[in-house]
Amino acid sequence: xxxxxxxxxxxxxxxxxxQGSLRELNLAVVLGRIAAAPRPPSRADVAxxxxxxxxxxxxxxxxxxxxxxxxxxxxxxxAGAGRPARGLVLAGSGPAGLGLEINVDYLAACVVDxxxxxRHHTVRRADLRPVSPADALARLVTLAAEARADAEGQGLTLxxxxxxxxxxxxxxxxxxxxxxxxxxDVAVPELLADHPPLAGPVPGVPPLVVDNEANLAAVGELHAxxxxxxxxxxxxxxxxxxxxxxxxxxxxxxxxxxSGEIGHIPVQPQGRPCRCGGRGCLxxxxxxxxxxxxxxxxxxxxPADTAAAPLAARAAAGHPAALAALAEAGQALGVAVAGVVxxxxxxxxxxxxxxxxLTPWLRPAVLAEVSRRVLTAGxxxxxxxxxxxxxxxxxxxxxxxxxxxxxxxxxxxLTRQG
Length: 418
What we know:
The protein contains 13 helices and 17 strands. It is α/β, with parallel strands linked by helices. InterPro entries: ATPase_NBD (IPR043129), ROK (IPR000600), WH-like_DNA-bd_sf (IPR036388), WH_DNA-bd_sf (IPR036390). Belongs to the ROK (NagC/XylR) family. Pfam families: ROK.
């Protein structure tokens, strides 16, 4: 038996839907419908599309507005009698996600609000290979603190943090191996434990999630273009090369969560030695440092914020070494991509990271190899296009993963607000 306001009531029947769980379900259904709508729906629209009563939808929407998850937009002009209904949109003030990225030659921080707008983005260039994991993460915490201060100045509250790393991530945020950083078995959460929390506790939202940068980039790309394909290969080209595989709208992780290591597919089995211990890996022919060397560009002489832009500028100007370097990289990339397409039957390849800006010069060679090597290429062409999010895909995808968790389960955030 349980008691409420002095009234004795029978205990809930096992298996029955409790009032609390029904409210949680209604909150998630209504918020999800508002988030997915192509234009701001009215309360009546939400009721009609969900099957909930107008009274239930109105009460749920009031809770979502009070919790800073939903806002009302100005009604669109309409002909005829009657007052136009106000539309409902995800709130631009309230919870936000903090995305962090640590890569071989840069650190990044990004804040995304519930509506998916980027509210803060910072990139700091630095060669992190000589730096210990603890020191690299300490630098990242400084970047995160700046992002949090900016977010709070805009009236946002950080609900969680997602960190993108260029390596294999195991359980509990353990980076098993990041060969280009020289990391092995780095317990990231433990190294960050001595620093102040970067986000306040929200029930149902982990304070810190660590994931592979290519996975987060692929998920970010998936949600950045709702009209895009539900299955694709997203290749991130930096010093290292990683891939995120999206199948039927969901990220494919593999048995241990380590899928997508396309950078270590051998394209020349007896070729150049790689940091991973193998030979002839794709990274040694299409990674940033290999392409810059072939183009006769010294990374130290390039702007601190990007290497792709100067390379693209030289290619656009017809510089022979730059054009030859990109053609060679595209050929190697095409060999690896063709193998993945043959294996998974994908029809779209998205070039992200530094590759996004270089797509016009990489694509011809990639397509040539795909046409030559993919069995179905003659009647089922493969599309190769640049990423919608470009070089920011991983850090934006990381931040977006936090707010999407709130949209899926808003009750945790509302409990905190209450």
